[in-house]
Description:
By secondary structure, chain A is of the alpha/beta class. Helices cover 49% and strands 16% of the residues of chain A. The termini of chain A are far apart.
Amino acid sequence: MTKHDVKNNDKTKPGLGRRAVLATGVTGALAIPFLARGAGNVLRIGVPTVLSGPIALLGTSSRNALLLEADRINAAGGLAGRKIELVFEDGKAQPQETARVARELVNTGGCELLIDATPSSGAFAVQEVVRDLGVLCIHTCSETSSLTADPKLRAPTAFRCARQGVHDSIAGGAYLAQFANAHKFNKWATCSPDYAYGRDTTAQFLDFFRHFKPDIELVTQAWPKLGQPDFTEVITKLIQARPQALFTLLYAGDLSAFINQGNVYALFKAMTVCTPNVDYPVLSAIKNIPDGIQSGTRYFEEFPPLPANKAWSEAYRKRFGQYPTNWAWQNAAAMMFLEAAAKKAGTSDGKTLVAVLSGLTIDCPFGTNGKITMREDHTIIDYAIGWGRTIAKPPYIADIKPADWGQIIELETAWKKQLGYI
Amino acid sequence: MDLGALVACFASPACVVTQASSGLIVGLLLFLVAAGLTLIFGVLKIVNFAHGTFYMLGAYIAYSVLQATNSYGLAVLAAAAAMAVFGVAFERFLIARVYGGNVLMQLLICYAVVLIFDDLVKLIWGADFHAMGMPEAFQRAPIFIAGGVVPPFYAGLIVLSLCLAALLGLGLGFTRMGKIITAAAQNPQMVAALGINTTALFALVFGLGGGLAGLAGALAAPVRSLSPGMGFSILIESFIITVIGGMGSIAGALLTAIGYGLLRGFGTIGFPLFTDELIYAAMILVLLLRPSGLFGREIV
């Protein structure tokens, strides 16, 4: 507005002086977040996620799952009577950027709750924002156990609705120990990406694997770079070491390239490959998936074998034209937790929901027995973890054995004690 | 460091054959990309930071052509041809406008092209990764030489890449056009004064460089994941090859690429935790001792 305009305004509206206009404007601007926050029938939920870069596919699948669930909840009347409006922001998988957008979503975006759909690189940064603002947040993609296991890192209003590295390591260790005993496989190799996730989780897996099978011999370990285009020399090194089985934490495009390049060297005939990371994007990208990879189920529409799981996957595929990912089910489950908590509390107020969420068990298509619990330490248990073997044709993974959650919790507790978390 | 494993590997013919062949394939695919990069620099004095984009587009075009025609040969030819045309267009419409200009401007143009085509790939093929899969003709059991494993597809790639390197060397050294390109690299003003159309010549060089990168992308596509931005990592490695070999030297690029591949092949056994660092250390050493690179005196 120019000076001339202001003057005209003064003339046409003599009752509203310049100072009053300014004061009204300033007050209005300051009040916008609070007005938006209290905008009656709309509940804004902020979602920092990853919508660009190499893992944009996972961020997009998170967004898809949240939209699917928000539409379902809104069609049924909303969250405690309030329509959900999701606000997505791209944190670009960078900690600083993710923290910035998370803070803005709350401070100026009028968001009352956060669903943090970022990997660990972003989730730890968001955790500090949440601790500072005291807003209810559900992390849906970070698998790093310490986020909620370490009491120094835990935030009172933050929850995790995602699988955990320690749970997967125990389940994988137990399954593969049985498999190794059955086939008399003692010579093992590992091949994981050369960064925190690859190194830490491989070490964690080996700890639990040795717990179940102390007599394994680790003949070689390979640490290719994340996003390395060519694994040829790694593959030939593994073949030279002659292990009976290989454990790998490569994932997404790297796992796809490794399998394709491994096929060229007949790697899968030379050793049995075991990985928790075969999922639908990998299965759909690889034309010749080898038989007999021992594989975990990150998201699988056949496991848990529940009609609700299959129906959810079909609804997702019908709307978005692709299979859901592991991130997709975790985000959908987070919305289901919010829905159940709001129903129980009769409100969508964040502080009230924090108290209700802790210890809440919900009916959920992704639970081993159709239920998932948000434990008192703000992380979920009883979600579906299974291991099976790949087959070349749909459903791609057969003979899936569900993990024993009693065993997982027992060993997780021991692990927490060992690290001084409890 | 595992020197014992390295010594044991050198003592085993099987290990030597396997690691050497894997090193050769890594190196020779890199050579195809680096050859175009060094050729363009040698003649035009342009550091083509968008060269990885040619590689990426070559891979994606081959992927789509294979899906449409089920012919891998056609897919490779189409990718190389398309990238040669793209190279000519890139030189004519963009690079030609900044010849002799600020290097920063060249860099910005290349970077803009990288970003635009990364996003275009996302729009056309999607943000998720793709895998071409091995063409049926190459879905064969590996060959065993002295107990070492050599996949037929890789053996074919090694032979093809070496043939292309020989063709490139012979073409530049013994054909009229090759001699003109060599002369233009040394003194473009003199070549222009002799009545040779340097505008067309420069476009041709860019086309040749682009075609080689597109070819490398198509040849690598059956075994590598295709994703937006995949050209970036290959660009870094190609720069290492061209810098060590000597900017502008085809022979330097070939020998350095083979050395690079072998270092990776055997380094992963003897120095698994710092194979990459060895390569960077070699680059620093060469730059300190011979700032123009190993073969830097040869212009082309």
